[in-house]
Amino acid sequence: MPRPAPCCVLACLAATLTTAPTSAQDWPQWRGPNRDGVVTSFESPTVWPRELTSRWQVDVGLGYATPLLVDDRIFMFTRQSDDEVLSALDAASGTSVWRTAYPAPFEMAHATFQHGPGPKSTPTFADGRLFTLGMSGIVTAFAADTGRTIWQTEPPPVEPLYHTAMSPLVDGDRVIVHVGGHDDGALTAFDVATGTVRWQWTGDGPAYGSPMLFELGGLRQIVTFTQENMVGVSAETGDLLWRRPFTTPATTTSQTPILYGDIVIQAGRANGITAFRVERDGDAWRTEDVWRTTDVSLHMTNGVVVDGVLYGLSHLNSGQYFGLDLDTGRVLWTSAPRQAENAALLQAGNVVFSLQDDAELLILRPSRRQFDPIERYTVADSATWAQPTIAGSRVFVKDVSTLALWTLN
């Protein structure tokens, strides 16, 4: 298939999404409508069932992109043999609506073998289009109604060390993604309709976390981790506003930045958790730490915020849940160790869902005092690295190669 002109952009505001979903139950991108792990439509059962009800399960291919839910369709981005595949399924039955594939062979880095050949990046839906970032760095825009390829970039000559994992961010008529390798990477805003490059920042290579759109100091900024920094660039021009040196042992971070009030939360393996403010003095920008703790840390798990408390799974002590007061940086509690290697956390109504990599779905009651699990469910027969998608009483779960729908009734 010939590849149209390059491009790819996705945008997201921590507080205000520029492209609203069509339904309260939609899950149109990485970590949900506002990219913060908050489920906006959830029906909490009066009594939690002893087991979830299995509705359907279908083979969709390898990878751990989050299932997108838009109206009555599920969109999945997976690998089948040497192809990367975007498919649409009927949400009620799991039956195929359309499937689009393109060749995407690549050589896996040895350190990534246990996690499989991906893709690891979750697509983004906005205004009838779907945007994907493939494992080798191919950026593609699809028509959501038919799966037609609108435009596609060539793979960059150098890939990130562990391939790609960040999920595109759509900001109006631009989709933003960090492409390229360590030395030639470019945080790039593509035109959503044509793939034309609108702006680029080439100051550092890509990391594996996903960018966010925050308003800081009265200016809309793309905030993201890079190979050796955490940066804020102008959402309009791509000009660098500020940077903070930030690295982690052996690899770059896979975290998505969190905004709490006017403070940004920075986390990464073996670096604890830090809260800082971004301040403007005329044309100059600076960052100032508010608090820092090394008692807990985040690696590949992203936390959720409920009533001023960050709930997460620290990679310390072989996987330990925690509650952290974001106003003070004080760790309120930690669970027993060895809970899980990784977990995908979501806030839904008055509970927190945690889908662990061992296929156990843990339901937690938010608490400032203690680790308070309500129920545990087994939801797959193989590892579950993808974030679940929750809407109403439905829970969509992607394991190594299948997608399943479970319900709470």
What is the CA–CA distance across the termini? 44 Å
**What is the rounded Rg?**
20 Å
**In percent, how much strand structure appears in the residues?**
35-45%
SS field, number of helical segments: 0
> Overall 3D geometry?
globular
| Percent of residues in helices | under 10%
Major sheet, described briefly? 5 strands, mixed
Number of domains as seen in the coordinates: 1
Main β-sheet, spatial strand arrangement: 1-27-28-29-30
The CATH level-2 architecture is identified as: 7 Propeller
Query: What's the rounded overall pLDDT mean?
Result: 92
The CATH superfamily name is YVTN repeat-like/Quinoprotein amine dehydrogenase
Quaternary structure type: single chain
Structural class: mainly beta
Number of DSSP strand runs:
33
CATH C-level category: Mainly Beta
- Looking at the structure, the CATH topology is Methylamine Dehydrogenase, Chain H
Outline the low-pLDDT stretches. Answer: 1-21
